[in-house]
Structures are given as structure tokens and as C-alpha cells.
Amino acid sequence: MEATTLTILHNATIVTMDSDSRVFINGGIVIDRDRIVAIDQSSSILQQYSSLAHHIIDLNAHILLPGLINTHVHTSQQLARGIADDVDLITWLHGRIWPYESSMTDEDSYISTLLCCIELIHSGVTCFAEAGGQHVSAMARAVELLGLRACLAQSIMDAGEGLPSSWAARTTDDCIQSQKELYAKHHNTVDGRIRVWFGIRQIMNSTDRLLLETRDAAKELKTGIHMHVAEIPYENQLVVEARKADHGTVTYLEKIKLLQNNLLAAHTVWVNSAEIDFLSRGGVKVSHCPAAAMRMLGFAPIIEMLDAGVCVSLGTDGAPSNNRMSIVDEMYLASLINKGREVFALGTTDPTVLRAETVLKMATINGAKSVLWDDEIGSLEVGKKADLVVVNPSSWSMVPIHDSISSLVYCMRTENVVSVMCNGQWIMKEKKILNVDEGEVISVARRASTELLNRAGVKIPNRMNFL
Description:
InterPro entries: Amidohydro-rel, Metal-dep_hydrolase_composite, Metal_Hydrolase, MTA/SAH_deaminase. This is N-acetylglucosamine-6-phosphate deacetylase. It comes from Trema orientale. One of its GO terms (molecular function) is hydrolase activity, acting on carbon-nitrogen (but not peptide) bonds. By secondary structure, the protein is α/β, with parallel strands linked by helices. 40% of the residues lie in helices and 20% in strands. It is built from 18 helices and 18 strands. The strands form three sheets. Strands 1, 2, 3, 4, 5, 15, 16, 17 and 18 form a nine-stranded mixed sheet that branches. β17 and β18 form a beta hairpin. It is globular and about 65 Å long. The model has no long low-confidence stretch (mean pLDDT 94).
């Protein structure tokens, strides 16, 4: 090993999230370039590696955990935060979001992605799965600059009501070809931090041909598919009526053999027990977005999915669906919402459902499995990528700590995240994003958002009576 490549982080509570759920109370970790080469007690790490290391950092009893993974994000929607509050899903889509998205320029998407990713980094996210916008190259440019890891996808639709004219003109061939070109251009670029997936917005805006050819193209290229699935009862009803399915979206996707282990199904709220079994047998991954679900979708049967062996991870969804792009908040909400559902929907009281360790797995190793990257990220283990988060627990929100796992899920706030490393490089240190000027991005984003909404013709009702 070259002395200049080694970094030691020590004197930390290291929450590994490995298969043995190891926690080192006074632990140390050694990083060589972009990978972890050792994890042990601080004393052992310092004795063995200190003479070889170029950087030795005392973490002062902070908590070190794997980089958090947000498995359902719309980075292109960040400039639309607050434009679709308190409306139903169809109004949300047809009246607000699609006019906004279809009016975006490449530069708008770049600025929106920068702003979104800054917020993601502050909440400890090192990797995210993009659910789809129209300007993937602009997203990639922002991800490259900020140093994050991402699975990027284009939002694809070739049918259905409410589509802006520019989108409605696309053929199925256009949709498939554009994604293949994006894959060729960006997949496995910027030191392997960017992967390109196929995107299907939702079944209500997809022909059978689009579904089938997406399935086959993703299999051929060995990549994933990101799709909104079973969001609202109307979706299932439409699938039953138009496609003669027995129940709804998941049943139909099972029929056409789209339920495979490279499918990341977002939300997946309105499913029955048979469909949960279909998801499990197909190896489908589910992204649970608690805040967005509670806002306009409903209670997803997450407990039943986990019990059936479905890999469930966490997502924030986009800013107009949630407003808060913090996976830290989603961990807290996921536990409370699903405990509450036991009382409300099932008539039982069981505080043990969705325990803290399960929720933290959803944000780490399950997230990695969901984005098909668990061989390299999702846990702190020798040989894996150095994607990690430093948490300062010495604040009024977390003190005292009797159980590190419990405190990370129930007590931690975004403000406790102080430093973030991705691929062996610090992308935030002491709460400062390193690769961009946050103030400048915020200023540019304000102007871009106003201009974009004016172009899109989106008018937001004013709820205040100014005097």
C-alpha cells in the first residue's frame, strides 16, 4: 500500500449494518482510495495502520454509519417544492407537475438536481435512485459535480390522458431508443458512480409494448427498471377495466412477467396478499415513501411485505410530494406510521413492529439491494466502497444515548449529520458541501423556479389575505 492513500477514522461508534449487525463502541476504519480495507477497535487499527496512513482523523465519539440510500427521488421536481400541496394525485399530475416538467430546460434540470442533491447530502444520503425526469444528462452533470452515487432514469410514457403535447408525440420506439442512448452515454461513468436504469412512469401511461420492450431491454443491458406501482385505487380499477386484469397493477405485471428482481416498485400501496406473494416470488424491490404515502396515497402494507420476504427500502419521493427531502425524517415516519397502522387498520397494538434495526436496514443495506448495488455499498465492510456518514450525537435532540440504533432512527435529525463521504471522497465536511457554493445554488434556484412556473402557466392559489 502507498502511504499517501490510507485514511484512518477512529474513536467512533461504528454501526456496520453487516450481516452480523456488528457495532464497534470505540471503533476505527481504514480507507484506501475508495474502499474499506479494515474495521476493528480503534486501538487495533491505530497499532496496525497508523505508521502507513497519510490522514488520521479522530471522530471524537461521533457515530459512523453506512451512507444512507434514498430509493425514490425526483431530482427534477425540486424547483416545484410547494406547487402541489393539498391536491389529489390526478390534479397533482395533470394540473401541476406535468406542465411544470414538460416546460423544463436542460439547465433547469441541472439546477433542480443540484438543489435536491444538496438536501440529500445534508441528510446523509450517498446514493439515490432517480425515478425519472426528462433531462438525464443534466442530472448526471450535477451528480458528477457533487460527488454522489446515483441510478438515473428517464421518465417514460407513451400513452394515457393528460400528457403535455410534447410528450404525447413520442412513440414507443422513441421511448426505448432514448433510454438506450442514455445508457450508452452515462452508464458506469464518473468512477462508476452513475448507473442508468430504465424508467416507466406508471402503468396508466404505458402501452403493453412499452412494458414488454422495457422489460427485455433492461434484461439485455443488465440494469434496473424504476416504476410507480399501485399508487391509488383508481389505477387498479383502470387496469382491471382496460387490461382485463383480475385485480390491478401488480397482478397484471405478474401476468406479463415484469415482476423480476431488477424491478424497483415505488409506493406499492394498493396491493392484496396474493400480490404481495407475487412481489416476493419475483424478487421485486419496493421503495416505501412514508410522507408521500400519507399525503395522498394511503397505508402501504409494509409489515406484510417484510414478513413475506420482500426487500423494502425507503424513499422521499420528490419535493412536491413531500417538501422535506430528508431520509432521516423518513426513517422516523416509517416506524411510527406502520406502528400506527397496526392500531388503525388491523385493530391490534404491537409496538414491536418495524423495530429500529429494521428501519435502519431499510435505509442502508435494503436500499443497496434495491438499487442492485449491495455488493459494494449499504454496509461498512472490508472490500466495500467507502460511502459513510458521520453523525454528531452530542446535541439536545440525541442526548443521552442508551442504544445507538434506536437513537439513529428515533432521535437523529438532519442537523446531526456533520460529514459525508462517497467513494472515498468527502463531499460534506462539518456541514459544508465541498464542491458547490450552496448560497449561489439557492439564489439561482429561486430565479429559475419563478421563470419556469411562469413558462409552464402553473398558478398557485394564494391562501393569505395580505393587508
